[in-house]
Write a structure and sequence with these properties.
Radius of gyration: 16 Å
Number of strands: 0
Helix content: over 70%
Oligomer: single chain
Number of helices: 4
């Protein structure tokens, strides 16, 4: 269980890095009026890493870590994944490239806000580290 906790804790840095990269690529695409290849790849990487993070978190909850505080945290993370996936689906259906970029940017930004709220629901710092809590 300790290994799973450290994997979950460490993966958040990759999730945040992918989020920052996705925002930068999407803002660049909107500013220049053309979508770079990274404007599709980085939001997809962010969404995939977020999905993996949620799976690891569910494993922690099932393993007995954070059972009381995890409800709000898990709900926010699932909503963040819904925002990321939903914006991607809606953007893929858009015929206007600029609109698709804006939709993806909105989805990633909303997911970031939900992630921050979800981490704060645990009473933890976004970048800090804390030992696992058995509840």
């Amino acid at each position: 269980m300790n290994l799973l906790y450290h994997a979950h804790s460490g993966l958040r840095y990759l999730v945040l890095l992918a989020a920052i990269g996705a925002v930068a690529a999407l803002v660049y695409g909107l500013a220049t009026g053309r979508a770079a290849r990274l404007a599709r790849i980085l939001p997809a990487a962010f969404t995939g890493l977020l999905d993996l993070q949620i799976l690891l978190g569910i494993g922690l909850v099932l393993g007995g870590l954070f059972p009381d505080a995890a409800v709000g945290h898990l709900a926010m993370m699932v909503l963040a994944a819904v925002a990321a996936h939903g914006s991607s689906i809606i953007a893929n259906r858009s015929f206007d490239e600029r609109r698709a970029l804006a939709i993806r940017l909105g989805g990633v930004a909303l997911a970031i806000v939900l992630i921050v709220v979800g981490v704060l629901a645990l009473g933890r710092s976004i970048l800090g580290s804390a030992p696992p809590t058995v509840g």
